[in-house]
Design goal:
69% helix; Four Helix Bundle (Hemerythrin (Met), subunit A); two-stranded antiparallel sheet
Length: 261
Amino acid sequence: MSSMTTRAAPPSTQTSASATGLRGLVADWSSDRQTFHVAWGKAMMWFFLLSDTFVFGSFLTGYMTVRMSTTVPWPNPSEVFALHVGGADIPLLLIAIMTFVLITSSGSMAMAVNCAYRRDRVNAARLMFVTAAFGVLFVGMQAFEWTKLIMDEGVRPWGNPMGAAQFGSSFFMITGFHGLHVSAGVIYLLVVAVRLLRGKYDDPLAAASQRPSPGGSEQASGGRALAHESKGHYQIVEITGLYWHFVDLVWVFIFALFYLW
C-alpha cells in the first residue's frame, strides 16, 4: 500500500518547473527582480539621453530641411561667425575655441570618473569642479556670440538682415537649447561634486562593519549589504559623466551641421 503511494513534489520544485519559457519570462519581469544588472540611476539616465537624442535630432532635421528648401540665400557661417582680431576677420575663431573648451571638459570628466572608480573622491570632486569651470567658460563665450549677433549684426529669431529669415530662428533655437543643457550640466556637476566632498555617497555602515553587532552577525551583514547597495560607491559620478559626454557629443553635430556646412 505504501509502495503505491506517490509523494507530492515540493512547492519549490513545482515553481521552478513551471517558471520556464515565456511564462517564466513574464513571471520574472512582473516580480520584483532585477532583470538587467544595471543600476537604476544609470538606466534612467540612458532613457533620458535617448529621449533627448530625439529632441535634438528633430531640431537638426528641421534646420536642415529649412535650409535646403529656402529660396533666399543662406548666410555664410564663416563670415557671420568671424571674429575681428588684429585688424583681420578670422573665420570661426570663437566657435573653434568653444569646441576646444567643451572637448577638453569631456577629458576632465573622464578623469573624474576614473578617480571615482578608484574611490578617490577628493580628486574626483576637483576634476568635476574643473569640468564645471569649462562649462561656465563655454556658456560665457556663447553669451558673447549671441550678443554680437543681436547687437552688431541685427539677427533676430524672426528676421535676419544677412539673408534667409530662418537663420535666426534656427540658430537661437538649437544653440539656446544646447546652452540650456550645458548650464544644467554645470549645476549638476557642482551639486554632485560638493556632495562628494562631504562624503554623502560613502557607506554609512563602513565603520560599523568592523564592530560586532548585538543583533547577530547575520542581521548585521544583511544591513551592511543593503546600505552598500545605496551608498558606498561613487557611481553618481559616472552617471553625471554620461550626461556631460552627451552634451559634448551633441555639440559636435551642431558644430558640423550649423557652423561648417
